[in-house]
Amino acid sequence: MPRPDRTGTPAARRAPGDPVPALSDITRFLSCPHCGGSLSLGAAVLRCGAGHTFDVARQGYVSLLGGRVPAEPADTAAMVAARAAFLDGGHFRPLAEGVAETAQHIVAGAVGRCVIDVGSGPGYWLASVLDRLPAHAGIAIDISKPALRRAARAHPRIGAVACDVRAPIPVRTGCAALVLSVFAPRNAPEMRRILGPGGALVVVTPTPDHLRELVGALGLLTVDPRKQERLEEALGSAFTRVAREARVFPLALARSATAAAVAMGPSAWHVDPAALRPALDRLPDPLPVTVSVEIATWHPH
Questions:
Q1: Hey, what CATH topology would domain 73-300 get?
Q2: Which residue, of 65, 112, 165, 232, has the greatest Cβ tally within 10 A?
Q3: 3-state SS string over the chain?
Q4: From CA 239, how far away is CA 235, in angstroms rounded?
Q5: Which residues 6+ apart lie within 8 Å of 241 measured at CB?
Q6: Distance CA 132, CA 99 (A)
Q7: For the packed helices 255-263 and 77-88, what is the interaxial angle rounded to 10 degrees?
């Protein structure tokens, strides 16, 4: 089984040009976004009993948006490439290990169900978790096609699915042993619905100190000081928080990694690229920054 490589990044599972992983391991967990029926996998197509069909992209993911237009814009190819470059640099390895350790403790013995990453991005966090859970398949859910193309190749047991995480999620009720939400939107009722008995939700959120040196120097978007309070409000109707752990560690980011950190997140929608380069050039190289996040485990009511 692939293990993290020397850079701290989950090792590349498939080289460009290799066959994409099949969706066969996760099809039984999916449902039709139109009628809710079970899906079966044919030749490059998913089909339900009512005749609704969904083509499998040649890059290995399938769209179950069902014609719905997402309420929020998807991450662009440039944002996804920047995120992949940053993660491949191993900068978040301690955080990935923390998420994987938490997942391993939760899922012990819950064989037969899947792990679902809601708002998965390129599949980095889910791949790290699956390395610890050899008996489980993973479903990477996102609305960004560039992200799903990468997620479909991030691990041999990941199936990538396009859907809007703020809408009904096209997976079967109670099919998940674990749901992940790492720096991603949350849909409490749907996350509760798809969790099976004994399952849990793991949520990773930044604190106001997260990357504070970079945020302050470049005037990037800040973390709302009420973020944890708002998280309690959003999840409290369906979940109870049972554990929380702070992860704080320093980084020294080279100029390219600093640029990727800006371009991979929500600040990318608000930063003028023409003004960014001179601002980056004025920063130290490497730039000392602080990673500060919380890993919380939530049990459904």
A1: Rossmann fold (3.40.50)
A2: 165
A3: CCCECCCCCECCCCCCCCCCCCCCCCHHHEECCCCCCEEEECCCEEEECCCCEEEECCCCCEECCCCCCCCCCCCCHHHHHHHHHHHHCCCCHHHHHHHHHHHHHHHCCCCCCEEEEECCCCCHHHHHHHHHCCCCCEEEEECCHHHHHHHCCCCCCEEEEECCCCCCCCECCCCEEEEEEECCCCCHHHHHHHEEEEEEEEEEEECCCCCHHHHHHHCCCCCCCCHHHHHHHHHCCCEEEEEEEEEEEEEEECHHHHHHHHHCCHHHHCCCHHHHHHHHHCCCCCEEEEEEEEEEEEEEC
A4: 6
A5: 232, 235, 296, 297, 298
A6: 10
A7: 140
What is the greatest pairwise CA distance in the chain? 60
- Spatial contact of 179 and 191, defined as CB atoms under 8 Å apart: yes
Pick from 167, 11, 145, 171: nearest CA to 81: 145
**What span, in angstroms and rounded, lies between the C-alpha atoms of 237 and 243?**
17
d(C-alpha 55, C-alpha 131), whole Å: 28
CA distance 274 to 219: 15
pLDDT of residue 109: 61
Structure tokens, 85 = 């470059």
Amino acid (one-letter) located at 60: G
Find tokens 């029926």 and name the residue: 37
Q: How many Cα atoms are found within 13 Å in the side-chain-facing hemisphere of 40?
A: 5
* pLDDT the model gives residue 22: 59
pLDDT digits (tens, 9 = 90+) for 17-32: 343 455 888 999 999 9
- Is residue 228 predicted with pLDDT exceeding 90? no
Q: Are 188 and 179 a contacting pair, CB within 8 Å?
A: no
Whole-number mean pLDDT of the chain? 88
Question: How many Cα atoms sit within 13 Å of 55 on the Cβ side?
Answer: 4
CA distance linking residue 101 with residue 202, whole number of Å: 11
